[in-house]
Structures are given as C-alpha cells and as structure tokens.
Amino acid sequence: MKLKKYALTLLAVVCIILPATIAPLLPLTDPLAMDLAKRFALASFDAPLGNDEYGRSVISRLIWGMHISLIVAVFSSTIGCVVGTALGILAAYLRGLVETAIMRFMDMLVCLPALLVAMVYVTLYGPGAGSLIPILAVVSLPAFTRVAYSAVLTVRSQEYVEASHAMGASRLRTMVRTILPNISSAVLVQLSLATASAVVLESGLSFLGLGIVPPDASLGTMIGSARSTLVQAPQLLLWPCVALTLLILTLNAVCDLLRDLLDPRHVGSS
Amino acid sequence: MVWLIRRIALSILMLWLVVTVIFLSLYIMPGDPVMLLLGADGFAPDPAAVAALRAELGLDQPIYVQYLRKLWSLLHFDLGISIVGDTPVIQDIARRLPRTLELVGVGALLSLIIGIPAGVRAGLKRGGGFDRIASAVTGFAQAVPVFVIGTILVLVLAQNLRLVPAGGYVDFAVDPARHILLLLMPSTAIAVGLSAIVFRITRASVLDVMPQDYVRTARAKGVPTARINSHHILRNALMPVVTVFALHVGTLLSGTVLVEFVFNWPGLSGMLISGVISRDYTVVTGVLTVTSAIFILINLLVDIVYSVLDPRVRR
Q1: What is the spatial distance between Cα A199 and Cα A270, in angstroms, rounded to a whole number?
Q2: Would residue A32 count as lying in a domain?
Q3: What is the pLDDT of residue A26?
Q4: Residues of A with Cβ-Cβ distance to B29 under 8 angstroms
Q5: What pLDDT is stored for residue A144 in this prediction?
Q6: What band does B40 get if pLDDT is binned at 50, 70 and 90?
Q7: What does each C-alpha distance from B210 to A195, B125, B205, B217 come to in angstroms?
Q8: CA distance A178 to A160
Q9: What whole-number distance in Å separates Cα of residue B22 and Cα of residue B14?
Q10: A223 chain-B contacts, CB cut-off 8 A
C-alpha cells in the first residue's frame, strides 16, 4: 500500500514536475509564437492539445506556464524558508525580547490575508514575476518561523545542545551546527507545503491579471483568458485547469512523502 | 473576566500593529505614491501639480504627523478618499462589504453542514467504504484552487446545462428568488475547499476523542450509542474544528476575492482589483485594513466561543 503510494508520487513527479522544470531543454514550439491560421485548431502533430485563440500551441504554453509557476514558487518559498527559519531559531534560542518581537510580528503578519497583501504590493510595484517572488516570500514567512520556533523549543533542552555549550561552542555555532540539522526535517516539510501554496497564490493573482503579465504563459493567465472564449473553445479552459490541479496534487503528494520519510511520528496519525 | 480583558487587549494590539505596518510599508516603499499617480503615463508630471497633490494628501508633513493623523482618522472610521474615484473609501466598503460577508457566511455555513456530519461519520467508521471515498474526494477538493472550481462550475452548470445564470447580482429586496439563485454557485465554489478542510479536521479529531477514557466510561455505564456520539464524542471533537475553521477565515477572505471576480459578484473584490489596476493605494490599503480587522475580530469571537465550549482555556 505504502509502496504503491510512493510509486504513484514518483510517477507524478516524472510526468509533471520534471517536464516543467526542464522546459527550456524540451523541443517545444515557441509558447509566444502566434499563428492566426491555427486559431482554435484542434489536436495536431505539432500541438497535441490544439491551439489557443492566437494560434499558440497549448501544450507548450502549459509546460512553460508550469515552468514559470514553479520558478516563482520555489524561489519565493526558499527565500521565505531561509529567513523564516533563521528568525524562528533566533526567537526560540535567544528567548526574551527577541522572541516577543519576532513572534508577535509573525502573529500580526498572519492577520493579513496573503492575496490582499500581494495585491497591495502589485499596486505599488506593478505585476510580473519579479514582484511576485519577494511578496510571496514575505507571505510564507510566518509559517516557517512558527515551525522552526516550535521545533527549536523541543530541541534546545536536549543533552546534545547542552554538550555543545559545554564544549565551548559559540551561540552561533550551536544554532547553525547543532540545532539546525535537528529541525531540518520539519522545515523541509514546511518548504514543500509553502511551494504548493505559492503555486496557488501565483495562479490566483495571474488569473486576476495581477501576476505574470501576458503574453508570458502562466496557468492562471491561461485560465483567465480562456473564460472569454468559453463558448467557442471550452477545451482551452479545461487544459490549464487540469494542469494546475495536477501540479498542486503532485506537490501535495511530495509533501506527504517527505512527511512520511522525515517525520516518523506523523505516520501513525495519517 | 481578566482572561477576556487580556484577550481583547491583545486583539487591539494586533490591530494597531497591522495598521502601523501598513502605514510604514507605504512610507518605506521606494516609489512615491504621488509620482505613481501622476507619472503613470511615462512622462514627468508638472512639479506644481505634484506639490499640490502632496499637500492635499498630507504627504508633505513629517512622518509622525502623518502617522498620528492616520491613527486619528482610523479611530473615526475614516480610511481616506479614493484618489481616482474621489469618494470616501469607507463609503464604498460599507456598501460592498455586506455582499462579501454574505458570500463568506453562506459558503462557511455550507461547508460546516457538509464537512462536520461527513467527518463524524468517516471518523466513527474508520477505514470503511464511506471513509475511504470521502477521504479521497477531499484530498482532491483541497488541491483544486477556488477560482478553478468557480470557472468549471460556470462552464458546466451555466454554459452547458443552463441550470443557473453564469453570474451577476440582484439585491435581495428587489428579487429574493433570483438573489438566492445567483448566490448558489459562488457560495458552493467557496464551500468545496473549505468543507474538505472541515471534514479532515472533524475526522481526525473524532479519531482522537474516541479512545478517551470518558468515552469508554460512558459505554461501560450503558449510555446509548447515539448519546455517546453526540454528547461525549462530538462536543469534544468540535473544539479543534472551531479553531482551525477560524484560522482559515483569512484564506477564505482571499478566496472570496477570486470567487467574486469569477461570478461578477459586486463585493470588495471589484473595488480591490480596479484599485490595483488604477494604482489607487488608498482603496487597496483601506480594504486590506478592514479585512484584517475582520480577521482579528473573528479570531477574538472564536476564542470567546471556545472558552464557552471548553472552560479549561480560561487560564
């Protein structure tokens, strides 16, 4: 049963995340190349999923769209992970005023709905991948800080941390070399969760026309623009919806897999 | 009582922090909001016009004056004047907010109606047919973004089957039947993902409660199963559901923006999106402030409800 689940996850990664990752290396037609003769064309050898309202190949737009989504999601959640984890370790290790300041600030960040914060940022800086990455990183911060914080609280009273102090290790060395490796599994699971939710947020913003800017492909913009051609070509709406759902399901499955492998306590409850 | 006062004070502190951070982030941002407004077309604006607008918006004052003015006007529920529309932002919000809250409320209610009974049933008969199917369906439902659900609903129910109108809004006072008809699809779109979450938490928490000693004691006393399920298991299992549900209200408010956009529901979303596009930052930050305040308020209410359900939290 478990093995079957792992095999399915692996298969999904190979079929969905791998092509999206290596999109520039694949022999795809240019996702921006328009060909009005092929407007709304159905499946052909060049374009197995047909062409969109400008005659662009749907399959290459899908794969490039996932490529951009993944780049934005991976970069933003990695930045969030590094900063958030560092803050969480500092708060739990140093305690006192630092702890209060960091954790209350995170409590406050949680009160701000992610999509709306991103919209404020886009108002000031304009849309595009460049402004999505920093703001999605900020939005993912509190979760990383809280996960790292609670993990450090359980780790810091362990004997090996005490031993590290006794051996004369500096506080920085204890935090980086002793504590960090011991909380890394919890942080890694959170990283996969954050990547999935960054994909959701990015696609939502792009759908509203406030994320990735057309003509660049993004699953969100594809769904958004397909709404206006709903009657002539419902397939144009269906493909990106299916691709986005599969992408998120795959990321969730990877997250489950990581949790099973890294967090033995969780297996029993799932 | 002391607990309640402390809790309310904490909420006020949070609200103050939110307002301060929004203010500071606007101040620190490198772009000058005035240049943003006047220089949008790519040519340098008239310096006199810039100075006039700065003075009009109070941006020529020192930062602490601006900050105190901001707090003072917020205390009077004044969120500023929309730069583009030239109307008070609060007026627009007051008109649109009830529609958004209606959508959120109905969606949340639907998700509880679906999620809790299904979760209890799956938890009580763990590993059974219903549990397996429902767990698989919710895993899927949680992964589909809310705007995808909305768009697919439009495609299937409105476009192909022609059961309901694709979107729009009619005031309840004007045509109650049509109002409810138009409410159906958007609230369902919101409820799908949320009921999956409610289902999962209810199921997990029923599983946690079932092996407890007090449940076994009740069984040993000969209490009827239905009463054990409702009084011993459900009441204790519901508490985590309340907490997690409240935590998701923030996400829900975000999701509603997308749903309103899909179904042309004239709530906060339309105002927000046109605000972003025309770079009207008073509108956008106004909506952000109000939404965050609602989020903080809901969390406060949930904690109070929680303390009624479980007096142990009042420490």
Answers
A1: 24
A2: no
A3: 79
A4: 124
A5: 94
A6: low
A7: 35, 11, 9, 11
A8: 8
A9: 12
A10: 147-148, 151
The rounded mean pLDDT for chain B is 84
- How many Å lie between the alpha carbon of B45 and the closest alpha carbon of chain A? 18
Selected for mutation to probe chain A from B254, B285, B291 (highest A CB count within 10 Å) is B254
How sure is the predictor about B44, in pLDDT bands with cuts at 50, 70 and 90? Answer: low
Q: Is A243 helix (H, G, I), strand (E, B) or coil?
A: helix
Domain that holds residue B299: 98-314
Whether B139 and B7 map to the same domain: the answer is no
- Residue A199 is part of which domain span? 49-269
Query: What whole-number distance in Å separates Cα of residue B270 and Cα of residue B71?
Result: 26
Q: Which of B25, B147, B272 sits opposite A119 (nearest CB)?
A: B272
B243 touches B306 (CB < 8 A): yes
**Cβ–Cβ gap A108/B14 under 8 Å:** yes
Q: Mean pLDDT, to the nearest integer, of B155-171? A: 83
B152 and B18 within one domain: no
Distance to chain B for A56, nearest Cα, Å: 22
Residues of A (239-258) whose Cβ lies below 8 Å from B = 241, 244-245, 248-249, 252
**Residues A161-206: pLDDT tens digits?**
889 989 999 989 989 888 998 888 889 989 998 999 999 999 999 9
CA distance B173 to chain A (A): 30
| 3-state class (DSSP) for residue A51 | strand
Q: Do both B82 and B124 map to the same domain?
A: no
Which string of DSSP letters, residue by residue, matches A113-172?
-HHHHHHHHHHHH-SSHHHHHHHHHHHHHHHHHHHHHHHHHHHTTSHHHHHHHHTT--HH
Which SS3 state, helix, strand or coil, does residue B314 take? coil
Could you tell me if B261 lies within 8 Å of chain A, comparing CB atoms? yes
- Which residue matches tokens 């219903």? B130
CB contact under 8 A, A113 and B261: no
A269–B287 CB contact, under 8 Å: no
Instruction: Measure Cα distances from B227 to A12, B12, B68 in Å.
Output: 45, 41, 57
Which residues is A51 bridged to in the sheet?
A57
A124 contact residues in B (CB cutoff 8 A): 26, 29, 31, 33, 36, 279, 281
Domain end marker among B36, B68, B89? B89
pTM: 0.86
Collect all residues of chain B within an 8 Å Cβ-Cβ radius of residue A230: 154-155, 159
**Domain end: B51, B70, B89, which one?**
B89
pLDDT higher at A36 or B179: B179
